[in-house]
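Trying the structure run again after the queue cleared.
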Amino acid sequence: MNRIPQGFIDDLLNRLDIVEVIDHRVKLRKTGKNYSACCPFHDEKTPSFSVSPDKQFYYCFGCGASGNAVGFLMEYERQGFVDAVESLAKTAGVEVPKEQTKENREQHFRQKNLFDTLEKASTYYQQQLKDNPKRDQAIRYLQNRGLSGHIAKQFGMGYAPPGWDNLLIKYGLTEEDIALLVDSGLVIRRDDNNKLYDRFRHRIVFPIRDTRGRAIGFGGRVLDDSKPKYLNSPETDVFHKGRELYGLYEARQANRNLEQLLVVEGYMDVIALAQYGISNAVATLGTACGEDHLRLAFRYVQEVVFCFDGDNAGRKAAKRALLNSLPAMEDGRQIKFLFLAEGQDPDSLVRQIGDERFLQQVQAGIPLEDFLFDVAAEGIDIHTMDGRARFSKIAAPLLNQIPKGVYRELMFTNLAKRTGLSSSAIMELTAAKAELSDLKEEPVVEPTPSEAPPSEYHYDPSANAAPHVMDTADEQPTPDYEAEYGSLFQGEIAPPTSAPEARRRSSVTLNPITAATLLLLDNPQVLQKLSADSILEQQDTKDPALLRLFNLLDYLKKRPTANFSTLLGFWGGAYGIDSQQELAKMLATHELTSDVSLSSHQPHRVLRHAFDKIRKQFLITERDRELTELKAKGLSNLSDDEKNRFRELIKQ
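Done. Tokens:
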């Protein structure tokens, strides 16, 4: 039987939203950060079936049913594994590879190498902002924009120093390394002479992160007169700007219960708003906000507010966003439009009026329904019969793009009231093509640096035999973890300082094994931030909880890009459905994941501290065992060496 590659399944689950998959079969209702319904797998009157958009899994608190999107189809529609994957692939518009070919394995391995290359570049750029001798201009720019060191660190901001080959010298040690730098968009290979040079030079660098927090590309803001002013990474195997929102990962980290996203135009708008405590802003990456952007946004929130300049260009961009928003307007969702005064942007406005008044303007944004009818009526006198006829011909095809539901029906009823036409007459107009006369789709051309390296420039990888190795964050002097994180395991958690609402104190008492397991389930990638010698190694034990932790560590070492959804699927196959449901219940029900913001405690340091606690417990157990054996012999029967050992043990 042909085997579907695990890499394909992982990618498929990342493409789909489990909320949409389940909602098409079982009607879900938004409840806090999750969605709920009466469980489809057992009879109940009170909803106990919960779906998590963050973790992309479902769990029933009544019967214990749990799993990812594949598991749901298998159980709900009684499909086999292959049939369930094929159904989801059809929904996502992709073809299922039926065998683990050499090409599939190479593609999966290549993507992992691209992620590693981009992450190393992100670390390098951040280090340059701290240490490079030419960083002063970058620091002054950030200070003049009013940004703190804390906010720069939160968004991973860095500095690409002047020079044609900084990254090449640092990481271009072999031809394979150079190929990864080129394929990740970090290095440009000229078509005319095959010469290489760094894409980002003398720029403030903004890492673009996916929803897992992995660097997938970069944006760069120039610090001299070079063009373009802002430069993005090109499209790559891991970066598709039409499907990513800058700042979404940071917004989710800062807001445990994210309810609204504010879509602005640029990196600095997102970061400046975060500096003022408005941590729910995101930005598209040089493209109009499309259906894929909105699909991603609505995975996490029910309300999106677009923020545009009030000039002609801003209004035109708003119309594009309006057209792209209509297919996403399912019942329960809301979209608003906020227009700023000419010459203003979110960055400048929030500094001028402050966060409170800025948020008031956001709340007073124009609802999509009002903006749509205003746009359709532009230049038309709807008080005349001819005007109402033309207005109807523009508005009806637009409304026809809204998905079936109550909202759509209300919009058509509203149009009927505005025009006096019957519902049947309006429905005849819906077949026309939906368009706005002054709005033509223009291709967005990604700018490239106007300058090129001098003709005599040539990069020679052989000159990099012994490059300087930059220290990583984990190699820096470490703080007192017991003082900083000990409360996580002993009782009261120290109040975080990142956001006002996070300053609540939560009383929890955690076993370090439980804490480590929950941290890894909540954010599997946290393991990659630990040095090899700080990761817990396998020990002889019969403790079920500890065995589960060791199995989890073994899985994550082999699959460093895993998320909870794919991990859950593996767990069911490896250890059985009962163990899978126990794992899901552990994450779904424990107060740590619902009441405590892990991001405010730097999860990799908390995890390291939990591992240290477990190691310490092993040492104590071993000491007690050795003491018991010595005591059993009788003190008078011990040799001199055994007596010395006994004295050492009782002092520990």
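The mean pLDDT is 81. Worth checking whether this holds up in the mutant runs.
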